Amino acid sequence: MKKILLASMVSLGLSAPQAMADVNLSGFASINAGKVLSGDGAPQYDIPPTFLADYPIVSAYEEEWSFKPETLFGLQVRADMGGGLSATAQVVARGADDFDAQFEWAYLSYELNDNWTLQAGKKRLPLFYYSDFYDVGFAYVWMRPPADTYTWQIFNYTGINALYTGEWGDWSVSGNIYGGREDSDNNRLLSQFFFREPVREIWKNIIGGVLTLNKDWFEARFTHMRYTNERFQAGEQVTWDGSTERDGRFYGIAVNLDFGQFFALSELNRLDLDGNFDSAMLTLGYRLDSVTPYVGYSTYEQKDGEDGEEHNTTFVGLRWDFHTSAAFKVQYDKVDDKSFNLAVAGDSRSLTFGVDLVF
């Protein structure tokens, strides 16, 4: 039904008079394969040797070669109605979802002036540097953004936001102020991986902001968000210290250095929610014409008395831009799971490769 709806939208847009809307189509895809070379798994949870490549959608590789966990196809439709008004919709079909097409984005934009744009609808929650183009593998050097850092269970929201772009002296500046909520029924990460029973995760009263500064070889991005969390597990409302709600605060900073051939990418994040959840990553790379080798490290830590979640990943990879719109990538990941009484997937060594393209 969703595929029929998408086809109908595209057909109507393409047949509409030019006076009504200028419709643009673009797309992206990743055809990836991988396997766990060795691993411990988490026998206490009946988890075999596993590499959890993507936490929010539970893209997991096991000991057999598979194309399903990270292969995806996306289509974006943008209709420009003129006068600064436009509509954007993005549909993604993922192997992890048996290629069931889902609307990831659907929002309206209105340009107030050269600096400010208002938007309303469903969008990606801009917690991390690569959040807005997380699904577009061609846009970054790795096979995927480091999983230890990009680990939260909510990644979209429905609401409103105001975008800013401008110049402050020699600095290029962009910003985003946003607010809304997300109600994730049968949340994938919590339901399928952590609790193994239906979990409804609600983030409400979301309000946040992003500021990015760029000059020459230096870029810094600062982000902060506040929200209220509710949760229902197996149909029963979860309480924390007798309360059905808890407030969370997210802080993040990303610093990127790009000297042409050599570059460094970094992120540092903290979620304050009944304790501190800390994540970080660092990547170093070197461009050799169309080939870019890179190495990196990511980490996640959350301690709660005798329990806690702590894991890190060391990775090394290569990107080859063999076409102006396509890149081949290969990556080796070494995961060390040091969680206390709460192993996520255990230690693992894995190999993944694939092609990312845009069209």
Automatic annotation (TrEMBL):
<feature type="domain" description="Porin">
    <location>
        <begin position="11"/>
        <end position="355"/>
    </location>
</feature>
<dbReference type="InterPro" id="IPR033900">
    <property type="entry name" value="Gram_neg_porin_domain"/>
</dbReference>
<dbReference type="InterPro" id="IPR023614">
    <property type="entry name" value="Porin_dom_sf"/>
</dbReference>
<protein>
    <recommendedName>
        <fullName>Porin domain-containing protein</fullName>
    </recommendedName>
</protein>
<dbReference type="Pfam" id="PF13609">
    <property type="entry name" value="Porin_4"/>
</dbReference>
<feature type="signal peptide">
    <location>
        <begin position="1"/>
        <end position="21"/>
    </location>
</feature>
<keyword id="KW-0732">Signal</keyword>
